[in-house]
Design a protein that fits this description.
By secondary structure, the protein is α+β, with helices and mostly antiparallel strands. The chain has twelve helices and 18 strands. Strand 14 and strand 15 form a beta hairpin. Helix 3 packs antiparallel against helix 4 (about 65-100). It is elongated.
């Protein structure tokens, strides 16, 4: 969320951000409601001052004057009461619209409409060269008895999956590898519950837009979260931290749920686009300083690159254009890993800097060395998200007999095995 004062003073820049991010919101409407609200509040203040001045006259009035003065006081009070519903309505309308105002993208962010306009900035690893006809991840899973799709879909619905045997252990191994790495880097490991209140989803910017992507539990008034970012971002909601507490580094491990509304017919085979998955999320709370934020943005990205490099996966990094980066993002990079069966890279990590946009929504602040209270900056990036990462891992490391060669970093978590093969 942006500061309304900033919008008043920089309306052209905010309108430009709306245009660049393809948002359907009128800044002029926001400014009109803001102006109407200020006008009604001025009336309130004038009436309150009038009532205060009037009340001082009553003790000094004669018995004959007092009834008329009391009646005039009641009339002023009635006028004030009549303004309250109008103020409430305007405040609610303004807040609802303010929650939809996008953050300003970085000046050097690539301009574009969608993912087709993202810009490749880095590429690494060696694309695999097979001496045999490689299989896709579904065939590999089924031939090794590592997953079940049809029966579980009858029980749990479409886009469900059930991993089996060594694949269960491999999924756990990738997460344990990521958690160990983050702990070594000074992150606090956090197991995040799957459920969250509406306020937490508003805090990250997933709400009010995006409700169609989230599962709702009406009897409990709770939502199933699509990322641990939701819970981690609200852990310090309403707090005023000390500057020396920053940065705060969290590694959130949690089950994640996404309805994938609007994606029907896309990526329906296997593990690419499922409703439930596990993820380790990197989350940083730092000082309100663009240079500090840029430092952590690079650090989060580098950590993800370390992970994919050590998993021996070919990858590329793209900088997301203004139309693909999302409402609250200032700057965003995606890491994509190679999927041989599709002959293309697929997103496995998303690295975002949001400056104070989320902190204003959660009212998370800190007191700097000079005693000034500032909103913090927040950043996030995936460390490992499965099962999608398993798609690239399986396909790139497959061998002719359908077995999978394990990257060296995962072997300690897999009983020292160099290769896994199902029965």
């Amino acid at each position: 969320m942006l500061d309304i004062k900033f919008i008043r003073e920089n309306s052209d820049a905010v309108k430009k951000a709306v245009e660049l991010k393809n948002m359907n919101i009128s800044i002029d409407e926001i400014l009109k409601i803001d102006n109407d609200l200020l006008e009604v509040k001025r009336k309130q203040q004038d009436l309150q001052e009038k009532r205060n001045a009037h009340s001082k006259k009553i003790p000094k009035a004669t018995p004959e004057e007092r009834p008329a003065l009391i009646e005039q006081g009641r009339e002023i009070g009635s006028e004030l009461d009549a303004l309250k519903p109008e103020v409430t309505k305007l405040e609610e309308s303004l807040r609802d619209l303010m929650l939809r105002v996008p953050n300003l993208p970085a000046e050097d962010a690539p301009v574009g409409k969608d993912e087709e306009d993202n810009v490749e900035v880095q590429k690494g690893g060696v694309l695999p060269s097979f001496s045999f006809e490689p299989k896709d991840h579904v065939d590999l899973l089924e031939m090794n008895n590592w997953a079940e799709f049809e029966s579980i879909a009858k029980v749990c619905g479409s886009r469900s999956y059930s991993l089996r045997n060594e694949m269960v252990l491999l999924e756990m191994a990738t997460h344990r590898f990521a958690l160990d790495k983050l702990m070594e880097k000074g992150f606090t490991l956090v197991s995040a519950p799957a459920m969250a209140r509406e306020s937490a989803l508003i805090g990250t910017g997933h709400f009010p837009d995006g409700k169609d992507q989230v599962y709702y539990l009406p009897e409990d008034d709770l939502y199933l979260s699509g990322t641990a970012e939701v819970q981690l971002n609200s852990l310090h909601a309403g707090d005023i931290l000390k500057e020396e507490q920053l940065p705060i580094l969290y590694a959130g491990y949690s089950p994640c749920f996404r309805r994938e509304a609007g994606s029907y017919g896309r990526d329906v085979r296997g593990l690419i686009r499922v409703h439930q998955f596990m993820k380790v999320e990197q989350f940083v709370i730092c000082k309100n300083d663009p240079a500090e934020t840029e430092k952590w943005h690079k650090a989060l990205l580098e950590t993800s690159l370390e992970i994919v490099k050590e998993l021996e996966l070919p990858y590329r990094v793209v900088e997301c254009c203004t139309g693909d980066m999302g409402t609250g993002k200032v700057k965003m990079f995606d890491v994509e890993c190679w999927v041989p069966s599709e002959n293309k890279y697929r997103e496995t990590h998303s690295c975002s800097a949001l400056h104070s946009w989320q902190a204003r929504r959660t009212n998370t602040r800190y007191r700097d060395s000079e005693g000034k209270v500032e909103f913090v900056h927040t950043l996030n990036n995936t460390a490992v998200a499965t099962p999608r990462l398993l798609v690239s891992l399986l396909e790139n490391h497959q061998q002719e007999d359908g077995s999978i060669r394990l990257p060296e970093v995962l072997r300690p978590y897999m009983g020292g095995k160099e290769v896994i093969k199902g029965k």
